[in-house]
What does this fold into?
Amino acid sequence: MSVDVRKIVTGVEDIWHGGGPPLAEPVRRGWIACVIANPFAGRYEPDIESFMDDLKPMGLDCSRRLVAAIGGDVGTVEAYGKGALVGVDGEIEHGALWHVPGGYAMRELLGQALAIVPSTAKLGAMGTAIDIPIHHKDACYVRSHFDAITVTVADAPRPDEMMFVLVMATGGRPHARVGGLKASEISKWDGQR
It folds into this structure.
């Protein structure tokens, strides 16, 4: 089964402050959304798992495009996340097809990325917004990097489409100050602490 891509949309934001003093360097967050035809739309298909293999090249391509969009240096990426928005003729399980192709693609590209890639999936009509969770790529308990970014594409997904999203960030929330494990304190290298 091949992947029928209709469009790829990318967004980038530079955050200079969150209400406090301006940062010396902004936190850059970016997202990429790939809108594809849902080959399972409108019917129940008991065996969908093999489609993940078809999505793997797209996952790598989107990961590379996203790194380029936020500056081109994988060494600056500190946080990530992923998600899927499935058109209304599909089912939520179709969004779960993105777990391996999206998550492992970012990990492969970023090198030492030990933490699970946070994820979300939902059904929605064209223009539906989806909040993609973000956390530190090496230790999911780094509280300063708990965040989310809202992604929407005006004409996606159509009822028979899916929109797969990847997110990367060069830092955590500006002026994070509510305690917890700091990125500089990661010591166990177990994906958690």
The CA atoms of residues 105 and 141 lie 22 Å apart. The longest helix spans residues 51-69.
